[in-house]
Amino acid sequence: MKETRTQFATRLGVIATTVGSAVGLGNIWRFPYEAGVHGGGAFLLIDLFFIFIIGVPVVCAEFIIGRHTGSNIRGAFRALAPGRQWGLVSYIGLCASVMILSFYSVVAGWTMHYTVKSIGGFSGVTTPEALHAQFDAFASSDIAPTAWTLIFLAVNYLILSRGVQKGIERMSNILMPMLFVILLLFTVNSLMMPGASDGLKFLFTPNFSEITPSVVLGAMGQAFFTLSLGLGCLITYSSYFKRETPLLRTSLITAGLDTLVAILAGIIIFPAVFTFGQEPATGPKLVFEVLPSIFANMGGGAIWSTLFFLLLFLASLTSTISMAEITIAYFEEEFGMKRKKATAISIAVSMVLGTLCALSFGSLGGVKLFGMTLFNLFDYTSSNILLPIGGMIISLFVGWVLDRSIVRGELLAGGGRITGWGVSTVVFCLRWLAPVCIGLVFVYGLNIF
Ligand code: TRP
């Protein structure tokens, strides 16, 4: 009953949209704050392990499911495993994507606020302490952060309701290259700061005594989050891939560029943290309290900072679009809704939850579930629990249940120089390595026994 489905138009489009989904606040906001909380170098090392050894094969698994079925996540599992319980993973994906979109939009709203604020040079405030206080006052002020969250979600609606190729692809093609260039510029600037060597030492020297189960759990969650992995986002995107797209190569390029951006963000943030005497373990506000100090101390700071926050806002947008696309494709294809209606419902739900998350830095700060504010609860549960569970089910499914000829066929299609040996390695990771590692991290990290 499906008409010919839309596809990404070009090879660059495939990479730009997939990298556009992966690169976002996860790299520039979440990676530095998680690394800061979890001791820097040790966290980075484990994060890299999870990205390349566990993440890349699971990305391939999502690609295989998505391109083979050309369907939304519910439809994909129905086609591949009719009448079996595997499809339940799609509901985890749908719930988690709404949760992530909600808290993510709050932070994206902060980037919009700071884009505007930068134009005025942060109202003339320049000392790190005062800039810090300025951000705190803003984040806890209820109305402004909520308004920005809603504006951000409204922008998502405008782009998403126009459809896949026109909205998503065109935007990503321009934005992603621009973001790289500006990050490189700031990297050079940070390397010249007095705190550079302390910052780099913090980020790159793993102190093995700091590796605890919760560091490992955090790093695994970060790896899944930054790769947009585990809730079918990549199943949905790869359903728009062409037959010729080489899957393993696309997943490696995505993981490589994504990691590069996170490391650059770390090199930008940590030298500044040590230069301005800030605390690395600040948590979600870290980047927003540190970055303005960097800009305030640069020549032409107002211009740089406007450009930076603008690009960060746009990078967030290419990521949230990919999250929302999961539920939109689901409503469209499973319930035959029109694109506009499907988009409106998805965005409206996130507007309600997003408002609650925005308020959890202000009036709702005292409302705690399991000792966490709503914002932190959404962030923690979705990344550290739901995404890895989703990833585990997806890798077990592709490793054990899916017909091997489908797996081979999809991985070998489009060339990309993958051999039979490469296919076997991916399958081995999906059957054993990924499920066992994720399972172990759960048992220890969540202290199940
Ligand atoms: N990877 C994105 C980032 O790092 C966030 C993201 C987009 C995401 N789509 C997702 C996270 C799906 C989890 C699942 O900013």
Walk me through this protein's architecture:
This protein is mainly alpha-helical. It contains 18 helices and no strands. The mean pLDDT is 92. Residues 21-22, 24-27, 100, 225-226, 228, 231, 233, 319, 322-323, 387 line the site of tryptophan (TRP).
Task: Give a quick summary of the entry.
The protein is mainly α and 449 residues long.
Number of helices: 18
Quote the beta fraction: under 5%
Report how far apart the termini are: 48 Å
Structural class: mainly alpha
What does the main sheet amount to? none
The Cα radius of gyration reads 21 Å
The general outline is globular
H-E string: HHHHHHHHHHHHHHHHHH
Detail the poorly predicted runs.
none
Mean pLDDT: 92
Bound molecules: tryptophan
Number of strands: 0
Helix content: over 70%
